[in-house]
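Bumping my old thread because nobody answered last time. Still need a sequence for this structure:
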């Protein structure tokens, strides 16, 4: 059955009849544990559709297990075992949503939100009778958000959390530190916020989240069953730290411009310096308590160009040990697999490059001569990261650049001439453009180089890097309409690559996006509602 729901449910069947949801309906007195979920649903329906559910009949909720869909593969970012499987039934007399946990019921109500959006006409949504039994393929389904290159304030981050929630994504990975800035308070290191946080790319405003703003964001996400995972990127991508604490800086700081706001740094933290470790401990001690839901700390580890393999491994191993000593698990970009890692660590795979088909002649022509060999060597090493991670017993978080880097330019023109300027400006040109259809033409197990079984994958995470992204509208235009496709890869057991089927479901999403004032690329590939 082709329901206007993304991600596609594990199973669904149609029956005869329908139920018309209107303003006089609502959730019938829910069990106490589901009161919050019921309130959230009514508030979300109002924001998605303008329909205010003022009654208390029509929709019943129950805490009842669902076990006729497979359990999720992988690991949850909150480290728990929460079951997200749920059922949703529409009959002539009303609607019933059930699952064994509040989160499961919330996921079921999220499908109902989408059904109401798709069927609403003149204040009434006539929902065809039927039954959905659903649950996720992977336990970790996320978005990595770069808040450094452009600082996205708390209001914008809340809008992004709302998007994640509408597509049953359950992780917001905040990339809080990078060469250009630092976005989080560390009370024992005031120069991070007094100095490093002021930076961003070009003359974009800097900024950081205060401790209370972060606590509010984390709570806002938790209410929507989204876990916020913090990333402190090291030992590369740390130039902003050096501006604040020059005693940590290497002798020479070298920056290479790659165009479009992107740059490359050949300056890294030094594992041989005692001060480095005092700093890392201060940062971890300040940050870990700010993310109580997260069982993980992301330690970065990527692109430590110019550093020896030995130094990089020594750094990763010590930083990872400090995270584990604080009771948290380690997640890092795929380069951490070049160090000795633990089976409980998660390796985030991104460099899905095929070296043989690469055209190094197309590298930026103004690249200094000594850099191309460094880049090529990095790509060669990257081919071994996934096998190394798996050999160490660790598992993979799938973020392949080909399909999940949303800073790839949009390929297809838009039906809105006002968006064409932004479409052509946004994204890193060296990636080459991708269509929305390209974004769903893969599978998170089959398509990953070096991966051969679903057990090796803990989940799926899209990434949005903000070198080319300046405004909130830019950010949303790069996230939508791609985000639902990433969510589908993380959730749906059966990989849909049939564009006609998928784009019919995608077309319905624009109704809620319009009501929520989210900017999306009105790609001509889709017949938007
Ligand atoms: C690589 S992906 C980076 C980022 C850039 C991104 C641009 C990764 C772990 N590091 O620093 O912003 O490419 O797509």
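Sorry it took so long. Here it is:
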């Amino acid at each position: 059955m082709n329901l206007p729901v993304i991600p596609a449910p594990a199973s669904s069947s149609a029956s005869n009849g329908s139920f018309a949801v209107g303003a006089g309906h609502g959730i019938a007195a829910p069990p106490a544990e589901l009161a919050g979920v019921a309130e959230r649903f009514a508030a979300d329906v109002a924001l998605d559709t303008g329909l205010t559910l003022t009654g208390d009949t029509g929709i019943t909720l129950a805490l009842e297990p669902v076990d006729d869909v497979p359990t999720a593969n992988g690991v949850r970012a909150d480290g728990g075992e929460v079951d997200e499987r749920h059922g949703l039934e529409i009959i002539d007399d009303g609607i019933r949503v059930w699952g064994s946990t509040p989160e499961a019921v919330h996921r079921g109500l999220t499908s109902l939100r989408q059904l109401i959006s798709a069927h609403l006409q003149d204040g009434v949504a006539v929902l065809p009778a039927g039954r959905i039994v659903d649950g996720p393929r992977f336990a970790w389904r996320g978005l990595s958000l770069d808040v450094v290159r452009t600082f996205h304030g708390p209001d914008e981050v809340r809008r992004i959390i709302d998007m994640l929630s509408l597509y049953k994504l359950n992780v917001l990975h905040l990339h809080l530190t990078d060469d250009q800035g630092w976005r989080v308070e560390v009370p024992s290191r005031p120069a991070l916020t007094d100095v490093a946080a002021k930076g961003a790319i070009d003359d974009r405003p800097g900024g950081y989240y205060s401790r209370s703003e972060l606590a509010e964001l984390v709570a806002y996400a938790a209410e929507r069953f989204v876990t916020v995972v913090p990333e402190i990127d090291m030992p590369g991508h740390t130039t902003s730290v050096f501006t604040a604490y020059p005693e940590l800086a290497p002798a020479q700081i070298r920056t290479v411009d790659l165009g479009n706001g992107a740059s490359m740094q050949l300056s890294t933290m030094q594992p041989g310096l005692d001060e480095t470790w005092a700093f890392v401990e201060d940062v971890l001690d300040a940050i870990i308590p700010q993310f109580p839901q997260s069982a993980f700390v992301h330690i970065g580890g990527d692109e430590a160009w110019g550093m020896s393999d030995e130094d990089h491994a020594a750094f990763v191993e010590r930083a990872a040990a400090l995270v584990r000593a604080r009771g948290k698990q380690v997640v890092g970009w795929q380069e951490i697999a070049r160090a000795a890692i633990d089976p409980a660590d998660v390796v985030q795979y991104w460099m899905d490059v095929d070296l043989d088909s690469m055209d190094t002649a197309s590298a930026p022509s103004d690249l200094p001569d000594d850099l191309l060999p460094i880049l090529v060597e990095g790509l060669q090493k990257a081919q071994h990261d996934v096998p190394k991670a798996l050999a160490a017993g660790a598992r993979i978080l799938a973020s392949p650049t080909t399909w999940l880097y949303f800073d790839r330019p949009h390929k297809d023109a838009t039906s809105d001439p006002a968006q064409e300027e932004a479409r052509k400006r946004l994204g890193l040109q060296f990636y080459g453009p991708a269509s929305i259809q390209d974004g769903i033409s893969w599978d998170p197990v089959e398509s990953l180089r070096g991966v051969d079984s679903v057990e090796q994958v803990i989940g799926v995470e899209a990434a949005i890097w903000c070198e080319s992204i300046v405004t909130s509208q830019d950010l949303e235009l790069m996230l939508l309409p791609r985000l639902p496709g990433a969510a589908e890869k993380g959730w749906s057991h059966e990989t849909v690559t049939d564009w006609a089927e998928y784009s019919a479901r995608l077309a319905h999403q624009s109704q809620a996006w319009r009501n929520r004032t989210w900017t999306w690329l009105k790609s001509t590939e889709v017949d938007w509602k």
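The pocket of TNX is lined by residues 302-303, 333, 350, 405, 407, 428, 465, 467 (CB under 6 Å). Let me know if any region looks off to you.
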